[in-house]
Every structure is written in structure tokens, then in C-alpha cells.
Amino acid sequence: MQILDHMALLGPLDLAAAGAILIAWFVISWMIEHAGAKRPSVTVLMSERRRDWMKVFVTRDPRIFDSQILASLRQGTSFFASTCLLAVGGVLALVSNTEPLRGVAAEVTEMAVPVVIFQLKLAFVAIFLTNAFLKFVWANRVFGYCAVMMAAVPNDPRDPIAYPRAAQAAELNIRAAINFNRGLRAMYFALAALAWLLGPIALMISTVLVVWVVWSREFASLPRSILLQEKA
Q1: What confidence category does residue 167 fall into, taking pLDDT thresholds of 50, 70 and 90?
Q2: Pick from 31, 37, 47, 36: which is nearest to 172 by CA?
Q3: Does the pTM of the predicted model rise above 0.85?
Q4: Distances, alpha carbon 159 to alpha carbons 60, 66, 156, 171, in Å
């Protein structure tokens, strides 16, 4: 049986729920990264703080403090990348072993559901986790680019290339942070996708909950209020 034949086993409600979580994922990401000046997200506010960081960096001596911060950021991306890789391996191992899936199918539903349905749903989770892994790896690499650019910033603030290079380092730092945040969102939605094992209604509910959590942390959280006060 081919992949299209497998997908044909999913009902219209399943396909609608799967499409809804994908749309929600893209829409909330776009809202966060393209928030307007009247209602900026935490991501947008932190981008400005990263630019301020690099401006201060030019005149700071010694720069050990900055290198420690950047090393901490890279360690965070490495940790989450490793976590995603382990999670992907676990999901793929479960997909390839049908016996545990038969037990799951018997526990979560009284209907005779083919094991391949659960394999498709778990593969959907693996897609989110794989995306998160790739984002974390790329974020780690761009933080590395940022580290090199920071090292190339002259110690003398009067040097004409000091602030332009610091600005480049800031933009690299921002791009790395954006990819890190994308990886985190993909992990959130991977957790929501797990609810599909309980059915399409459960997937829709979990999607709404995850969207609310992500939105509230970016647009209605205490850290955002603190950043806005600092901005003022």
C-alpha cells in the first residue's frame, strides 16, 4: 500500500485537524516575527535589546562577560538540538515497531483502527521534531558566526569599522535567536500533534491550547511588560 493509500484511511476530520495545526503554526510564527510597532512581540523587543547589546559591546573592556553570554546561548541550542534528536529517534523506533502501537490503539479507541494510522500520526509528530532539530542546529551555527564577528570588532570605539561590525554581529545574533525560537515553537506543536493519537478533536483542542500558550508568552506575558517598561 502506497503513502496516498495510507492517507486515504484518514477521515475528513483528521485531515482538517492536521491542516489546522499546520496553518496555526505558520500564522502564529508570522504574527510573532512581523508584529507591528504598536503591539510588538517579545521576540521583536528582544531583537532591539540585542542591537543595544552590541552597541555597548564596542566600549566594554574586557569582553569576557559577552563571550560568556554567547557561550550560554550556544549551550542552550546544543541542548535542545540533542533533545530533539533523541525524540525523533524514539518516535521513529516506535513507528517501526508495530506491536506497541497495537497496544496503544487498543487503549485509546474501541474501534478497529489500522496500525498504519498511528504510524502516520507519529510521523506527523516526527516532522515537527525534525524541523525543530534543524532550527536549533542552524541557530547554533549562526551564533558561531556571531562569535567570530564579535571577535572582529576592534577594541577602539573610534575605529570606523567598530560600530558597523558590531551592527553585523547584532543582526547575526538576532537571526540565531529567531531560529532558536522557531525550534521551540516546533517543539510545542510537536507536543500538540501527539494528541492526534486520541483523535482529531483532541488534536484541535491541543492546537488551540498551544497557540494560546505561544501567543500569551509573546504578547501578554510579564517579561513583555518588563521589556516595554524598560523601553519607555
Answers
A1: very high
A2: 47
A3: yes
A4: 14, 20, 6, 20
